[in-house]
Amino acid sequence: MSDDNPPVDHIVVDDDNGGTEKSTPAIEENLKAKSTWIRLVFMLILCFLGWLATMVATVVVVLGFFWVLFTGETNKRLKGAGQGIARYVYQIIQYLTYNTDERPFPFDAAWPGADSD
């Protein structure tokens, strides 16, 4: 590689004297960024909470099935709980895939109610 064509991960900055100064590679800056590592911690916590929410949703599904089996009607409370869990898991996935920076419950957002948008 020549000085005219630096690698993609290098930043070339013109200084005031007409020369160029190479700064640290972008990946090195990203590795040192505290916010990146803090997000990783939250991502790991939210992965666990997402798994836990999925287990709770499984219980809600089974209870809902047996409710319909024995009564012939759906249970509004179980439907609401299922909807809240579904929205919560959606919020977790949004955060984990970098589609939002708002951390789901219990961090930045409130628990997503069944009737909220």
Verbal overview:
With 117 residues, this protein is mainly α. It folds into 2 domains: 1-32, no CATH class; 34-117. Helix content is 56%, strand content 5%. It has 3 helices and 2 strands. Strands 1-2 form a two-stranded antiparallel ribbon. A hairpin with a 5-residue loop joins strand 1 (12-14) and strand 2 (20-22). Helix 2 packs antiparallel against helix 3 (76-96). It is rod-shaped, with a radius of gyration of 24 Å. The mean pLDDT is 84.
What is the helix content?
55-70%
Q: Give the number of domains.
A: 2
Order of helices and strands: EEHHH
Average per-residue pLDDT, rounded, comes to 84
Largest sheet: 2 strands, antiparallel
Tell me the number of strands: 2
Q: Please mark out the parts with pLDDT under 50 across 5 or more consecutive residues, or reply none.
A: none
Number of helices, counting only DSSP H or I runs of 4 residues or more: 3
Computed CA radius of gyration, to the nearest angstrom: 24 Å
N-to-C CA distance: 53 Å
What structural class do helix, strand and pairing data support? mainly alpha
Anisotropy-based shape: rod-shaped
> Approximately what portion of the residues adopt beta-strand conformation?
5-15%
- The largest sheet has its strands arranged as 1-2
Features:
117 residues; mainly alpha; two-stranded antiparallel ribbon; 3 helices
Topology, element by element:
Elements: E1 12-14, E2 20-22, H1 26-32, H2 34-71, H3 76-96
Antiparallel strand pairs: 1-2
Helix pairs in contact: 2-3
